[in-house]
Write a structure and sequence with these properties.
By secondary structure, this protein is mostly beta strands. The protein has a domain of 79 residues: Immunoglobulin-like. 7% of the residues lie in helices and 24% in strands. The protein contains 1 helix and 6 strands, in the order αββββββ. Strands 1-2-4 form a 3-stranded antiparallel beta sheet, with no helix packed on it. It has a 3-stranded antiparallel beta sheet with strand order 3-5-6, with no helix packed on it.
Length: 124
């Protein structure tokens, strides 16, 4: 019995699906182009990606080095390994960061018109 358990531990079959890739940095709003790395999480796997909104396949561009991503870009990626099922799709969006909508202004003060007189309260 112990030999059977030991053999089953030694000869485990590897997972049949590749883990999805990760994006570094993760999705974020930006005002400037961002350098994005895609990383595999399964040894021996490789990544294909798209930036045109289409689904990534093995015919999509192969990831080789960090991408410079313009604001408003979404990267879709999938990891592959020969003989394994491809990973689930992973995606990251780098939308244009909205400008600050609150303009910086000085506090407003009100002044009385020149023809008015200050009033005082009198005890009566």
């Amino acid at each position: 019995l112990l030999a059977a358990i030991g053999a089953s531990l030694l000869f485990r079959t590897p997972p049949s699906h590749v883990l999805p890739p990760v994006f570094v940095p993760s999705a974020q709003a930006t005002e400037e182009p961002v350098r994005v790395e895609l990383r595999v999480r399964t040894d021996g796997s490789y990544i294909h990606f798209t930036v045109d909104g289409s689904e990534p396949t093995e015919k999509s561009p192969a990831y080789e080095k960090a991408l410079t991503v313009e604001p408003g870009t979404t990267i879709r990626a999938r990891a592959f390994r020969k003989g394994w099922e491809p990973s689930e799709e992973a995606s990251a969006s780098y939308p244009l960061k909205a400008a600050d909508t609150q303009p910086a202004t000085a506090p407003q003060t009100q002044t009385a018109p020149a023809d008015t007189q200050p009033t005082t309260a009198t005890a009566g």
